[in-house]
Amino acid sequence: MIVELLSLVTGKRLIDDDVLFTHRLQFLPGVEAPKIVIVPKKDAPLGAQRVLKIVADTIDTGSGLNAQITYNLDGDFTLPIVDTGLDPVTKAKNGDKGSPDYSPSLGGLIPADTALPNYSILDPLHFIGNYPKANSGGDGESGGKGGSGAEGIDAPVLEIWTKEILGDGLTIDLRGQEGGDGGQGGTGQRGGDGQGGSAAVEGTDENWLGVPNVTCAQRPGMGGDGGRGGNAGCGGDGGNGGNGGVFKLFYTSGVAVAKFTPMMQGGDGGITGSPGAPGSGGQGGPPGVNILSCSATASSVNGSDGLYCRSQNEGGISKRGTDGTDGYQFSHEVAAIPKIPGLFP
Fold first, then answer.
1. What percent helix, strand, coil does the chain show, rounded to 5?
2. Residues 6+ apart with CB under 8 A from 315
3. From the first residue on, what is the mean pLDDT of each consecutive set of 10 residues in the chain (345 residues)?
4. Which residues contact 106 (CB under 8 A, 6 or more apart)?
5. Is the pTM for the entire model greater than 0.90?
6. CA dihedral over 310, 312, 316, 317, signed as positive or negative
7. Positive or negative, the Cα torsion across 218, 219, 220, 224?
């Protein structure tokens, strides 16, 4: 419990306790708008529901200060002046890129991984295949689905007891955090290249006069077909939006309750990640070297490119996160607010 006769708020004041008891809660001008920021309670379990109770005889929000009470429960760093890190104005972490991912690295300088077997003319011992058709290249593996976006943080519970509010008013920003977007899908693997066909083989024969001549003993072999490219990985699912918080106001007669402006909407669900690219098909191997006495042979075919991810719309493989539930508020007039004996006369 925090007990103060005068409780000052300038800039972002972080509160990690459950109760703030004060005679006067004073918001002051500074380099940024004064805000009470509810942060995780020390040693509390991760994700535990956060509750802050403020008991103040007088709340003075000043003039033109845009005084607020809000929260930051996911540990994001906050900077002065700007509202980076505050949960109602940030979104949860996006999902990771799908794994495996066969995208070219270093800006395309290093080619993407290629499926095996992958026959290359740079390997003359294995590039030429057997008759009548050489071996085909291997089919590429599919890229992985992107990781799911993190779920938005649920806003806390805020309870205020007061006998007076002065100044322009107090914004209670307990909107749920937006869910993280799904990660991008992994790119499919390139199909392997086919093997080169075997060379034509000469033979000999004699014509009716007994003169030898060159014949075709074996036509050139067909090259191996290129392997099929791997399918594109689908984008990850969006994270669910956080739920709006709860605001409870207890006040004595005459308090200008209209000066409290609650914002309690649930956070938007994250969108789906973009799909990866399909892997390209491998190249078909060339036919074998021909000779004049042999006719040409049929050529090999290039491997087909991988398939794109199915629809990203509702019902598709990747799904948008669900919007968080709106929070709620209620206020109740009371005869007196709690006291600590001997502290406030």
1. 5, 25, 70
2. none
3. 94 95 95 94 81 97 95 80 81 96 81 92 93 97 96 97 97 98 96 96 82 89 97 96 98 97 98 95 96 88 92 70 97 94 66
4. none
5. no
6. positive
7. negative
Cα 42 to Cα 6, 191, 295, distances in angstroms: 24, 54, 84
- Confirm if 201 and 252 have CB atoms less than 8 A apart: no
Maximum CA extent, the chain: 136
25 CB-near residues (< 8 Å, 6+ apart): 7, 9, 54, 56, 58, 59, 60
Token match 């003039």: residue?
63
Best CA proximity match to 96, nearest among 142, 150, 46: 150
With a CB cutoff of 8 Å and minimum separation 6, the contacts of 332 are 248, 249, 250, 251
**CA pair distance 17, 6, nearest whole angstrom:** 17
> What tokens appear for 328 in the block?
């709620």
